[in-house]
Batch of 3 targets.
Target 1
Amino acid sequence: MIEESFEAKGKRKRLIEELRSKGISDERVLEAMGRVQRHLFMDDAFLRHAYQDKAFPIAAGQTISQPYTVAVQTILLNVSKRDKVLEIGTGSGYQAAVLAEMGVKVYTIERQRELYRKAQIILNEMGYRIHFFLGDGYEGQPHYGPYDGIIITAATAEVPEKLLKQLRIGGRLVVPRGERDLQVMTLFVRRGEDDYEISNHGNFVFVPMLKGIANNNERD
């Protein structure tokens, strides 16, 4: 783990208390978030704001999610140690780090090469063992499934059937579902081959989920 200042540790502790005051009560999630150095995932221009409960811009026109949002999605996944979770949209890598801190086997897909590379570098430097893929989130990663959980960190009006089918029976998929300006955080629990229990958990705002790999004229 990368060493950090006492100031950063203090700010992160205050962030966790703020999340508690907003109703986040799952201590496993709070403890995991309390160990993740969010400032390492931020662009330099926003470093001093890293422990505010806000979303901030990152590269490729994307954002690092608000900590409250990360907490809500993680709670809805209801993971246990050694669970296998597929993340659609690596982004900064912050959500993947929180899941890894909870002992989850994380498989994460990113369509933007710049974010894919940056997340690999920082998460590896932080000591997390995560499986990275540059690819189309709509396709998922069926070769490594079925998954105990799937988390989608971008907005989509319709959940891809391919992703739902990559859940194990009893598995949970968390997605901000809706149009560009406002989405409903939605939980799908797979109860049978074609049977899903669906519940809604508040309004959020995410960047849209897009198909394909961005900048596909570049080479890795």
Note: The first strand starts at residue 56 and ends at 57.
Target 2
Amino acid sequence: MKENKPYDSSLVGFIYGIAAYVLWGFLPLYWKLLDKIPATEILAHRILWSFMFVCTVLYFNGNLHKCKEVFKDKLNIVRISCATVFITINWGTYIWAVNSDHIVEASMGYYMNPLIVVVLGVVILKERLNTWQIVSLIMATIGVGIVTMSYGQIPWISLILALSFGLYGLMKKMIPVGSTVSLALETAMLMPLTLIYIIFRQVSGIGALGNISAATTFILIGTGIATALPLLWFSEGARRIPLSSIGFLQYISPTISLVLGIFVFGEQFTQTHIVSFGFIWGGLIIYSLSQVKQMRKKNELLRESIEVNG
């Protein structure tokens, strides 16, 4: 039997990672197909069908029992509850933003997310920043400030998306389970409210099911797969490639969304946007390079330690 070489595993990891972020990037096209349905109802169906899909995956993988193990620790219940709130805010805001023609602002939120994560690390985990990370944060803050001063309002969509996803990621780091199990638990917690809301709308005669075409119904049910599939691919990719590589890949998604917003859906991308995004992109480049440098130092120290102790 032929052994898998390390570079074969890395290649597969990159394919999974790229596929996940590309699919996330093209999701605005998917949500636009459902723009006749209220964002809250799309969100409810997304939760319902995601729950059904991930439970099916866990059942066939033989991992359904892992969901019970999480509830043995009360602190995990609190963390999953918090993660559920944050991802619900994130999903709902993103669906509303896309179908309300704010894709450009939504993409800004996901560009800002890595830098928001750094801020959360400092504030909550008491992490220390190096000089270049401080510079990257200053540049991102300037970028947001330019948009705020130019339009006279804070880019709430961007900030809500970046902060909610950053806090969601923070909670996920503290929960000792895989992404699929975590998603199953998060959607399970929302199921009672979700079912009540969907049934209420259906009984009232204003629900989507039965009032939309068969094709749109199929697309609505497919929100579960559209949600869970890239997450599964991401999990597979993250196991095979370094965190620094994942860090670079994550910019694929908002870049695709930004291009779609400007060239497909005709959203405005003014000179102010160019300057603002320029500062944020500059901050991201500096931050990413500093991360790569840090990881190289860690790897060198690890190799030296192995050589000394070997």
Note: The mean pLDDT is 87.
Target 3
Amino acid sequence: MAYPEKTTHLLYLHGFRSSPQSAKARRMAHHIAEHHPQLTWHCPQLPPSPQQAMQQVTQAIADWPGQRMAVVGSSLGGFYATWVAQRRGCRAVLLNPAVYPARDLEKYIGSQTQYHAPEDSFYFRPEYIQELQALETGALQTPAQFMTVIAKGDEVLNWREMAARYQSSQCLLLEGGDHALSNFDSLLPAVLEHLNLA
């Protein structure tokens, strides 16, 4: 898919128990501030409720131009980013995206803490599982919009499930690696190219 126009609006969605303080989010924010200061950057702290999270995101990007916006999502944020991209027809980069979060997060029902702020706790409620199910989007409508970065060494999510879900997209399959994509700096050029920010 050809996107002749440069990206002017970029959304970053963090993963479960994560935040805008994650290493990847901060790296992206730093690059945007340094190289694309005119770009509209939005990296919100997402609430635990998937329904509330997507309502807040939808409101925040309501007036963004679909052909000039893009979304990056990590882990659960990758699941959310897929939902956003399918609705808005925009480019998306998915970093070790969650494929079956309604299944995988059932074991986390109860009190949880944030990785980057352990003093901040939240309660992951049983009804959030149904909210995740309601956000499932089915097959990719426009696979060329998507770039997926998958680490075979992901210790949290099954790389084969990710690869199968996003097999029709541009896929960067990494030997080894980890869920956090600790080598994100080396991946940034490919990510920026797909986002039309290279």
Note: The chain has one domain: 9-194.
